[in-house]
Amino acid sequence: MKTRITPLMLAILAVSSSNVVADDDLTINGFLSAGVGALSTDEIAVNGYDEDPGFKQDTVLGLQVSKHIQGKFSLTGQLVARGSDDFDMEAAWAYATYEHSDETSVRFGRLRAPFFYYSDFLEVGYAYNWIRPPTEVYRIGFSSIDGVDVTHQLYFGDIDASVQLYYGRFNEDLTIGGTDYDFDLTQFAGVVFNASMDPFALRLSYHRAALSSTSLSATAAALNDDFIVDDDVTTFMESAFIYDDGDNQVVIELTALDHDTASLTDDIAYLIHYARRMDQFTPHLTYAYEEDDVESGTTGLLQQAAGLENEYASYIAGLRYDIETNVALKIEAQYRDEKTRSAADGEDGFLYSAAVDMIF
Length: 360
What we know:
- By secondary structure, this protein is mainly beta.
- It has one domain (102-359): Beta Barrel (Porin).
- Helices cover 7% and strands 59% of the residues.
- The chain has a 16-stranded antiparallel β-barrel.
- A hairpin with a 3-residue loop joins strand 1 (21-22) and strand 2.
């Protein structure tokens, strides 16, 4: 009987089974993605690539250190250097864990924001089939928050489930349209529900925060008060359905963003992914879609004038080849259809890319 390898199992393997250094209290692990890509035309925009081959955009190096302190306490840190950020080292994780019981744990510090199905292993390319998760869906400009979360495991017969509650804050600059703006997300809270019964799994999540931005407000003040960003509620909802029988994998993920401020457009996005495992080879196909929803009336016209309306679709065909237990080679072709870009007719073209993903 074939063992079903799930993304969660791969993620656990990536961060806990192959140790550079290990003793009873300390483990050090790592992962690396080294990628290259090029566009068929500079008229489209995908992940920072252009017509000349680029080697930085999909290259990521990460190191994780875990240390058991005493009793029920442990510490975890993860440092990540991304080529897209000129390999500046960032602390993606830096938290303490208190294991209250076998079913309940509490973490506090810098945590991965649990927006998506692949959020916990977003940087570990080995854990999924793509070279990068489709940016139509995986489009939020940050992946970590500072705060606390509580996770409780639940069991209902053959169903394994968990509920995660978190609360925190994000206060850093984000880049929008090539410009950096300060973002302060306070009262940042959410709930994530996971359930699985082989070969099916389900994930539902809801996230809410109060958003403020002095620099974005200053830029938008000339439009009207709807564009001011001052303690405006922003929400994000996500659902994912997974079927994985060991040979076939289907992932369907849907998301929706809603902002009280008109400086950021509401949107919907989804992806449909199918992969077929054939020994060391895994061919896969994906369709991903994102559409902004501009406001009605004068505010909507101003949003369009500011270039805030976009509609994108991608068709992705790829092949994964598992060279060794911990090393995978991937090649991928992505057809990008920019139906609308910055409120104008978009272009279309291809991104061709390849990568080697490994864990150690």
